[in-house]
Design goal:
Length: about 220
């Protein structure tokens, strides 16, 4: 039981690391460790994870020059689907940014969730990071699915969920996010797969040496 508690505590810390503040060196080392653990337990193949990271980098470089200083656009890729969050100065700018990133090779779908208006202040973005860490920590506490299978992005209090999970896992993730303090809205962009497909992907991860962590043990 003690080992189970330690495992959950460690997982919660890894999930919350991106939102924590501290010395630069510790933050970099911690984030690298968390990224390694998350990558090892992701239902996406290693190749797809690499493609997603590349898409995010390319998307940032595809923002039209005339909007680079006027728009606040964030790009999150998951399973070759690209989510755009942030703010654009106009509908024209919003459409132009989407049009450009759709040209990136390998992008299957684009979810354009840019708001129209001025860029949010840094204080708002810090609060978004805090909300993301709370949602992830509550995923761990709920113990109903592997929290590393659901990606959480928060923008202006709106939580976006991405992942490859079963319907039951998706329902649990949405419920937890909706009941987390500070969350104004939840946008479900999760790809639902069958339990059989989920088992297949998990077995594939084991075969590649990236076995998922054990299911959380219910505390008594």
């Amino acid at each position: 039981m003690q080992k189970a508690k330690l495992s959950l505590a460690t997982l919660a810390l890894l999930l919350a690391l991106p939102a924590l503040h501290g010395c630069v060196e510790a933050a970099l080392l911690g984030t690298a460790a968390a990224s390694g653990v998350m990558s090892a337990h992701d239902r996406r193949s290693t190749g797809t994870q690499t493609d997603d990271e590349t898409m995010e980098w390319k998307a940032n470089n595809h923002v039209p020059a005339q909007y680079k200083d006027k728009a606040h656009a964030n790009f999150t890729a998951f399973n070759r689907r690209l989510l755009i969050t942030g703010e654009a100065p106009s509908e024209e700018a919003k459409s132009a940014i989407e049009s450009e990133v759709r040209k990136i090779e390998g992008v299957k779908e684009v979810y354009n969730e840019l708001g129209i208006g001025p860029a949010t202040p840094l204080s708002s973005r810090s609060n978004d990071s805090f909300i993301t860490s709370k949602v992830k920590s509550r995923f761990v506490d709920a113990g109903k699915f592997n929290p590393m299978h659901v990606k959480v992005v928060t923008e202006a209090g709106t939580v976006f969920l991405l992942g490859l999970v079963t319907q039951a896992e998706a329902n649990s993730a949405v419920q937890v996010a909706r009941t987390t303090s500070g969350v104004k809205k939840v946008v479900n962009l999760i790809e639902v797969i069958t339990p059989a497909k989920a088992r297949e992907l998990d077995v594939a991860q084991k075969g590649s040496g990236n076995a998922p962590p054990p299911a959380p043990v219910e505390q008594r």
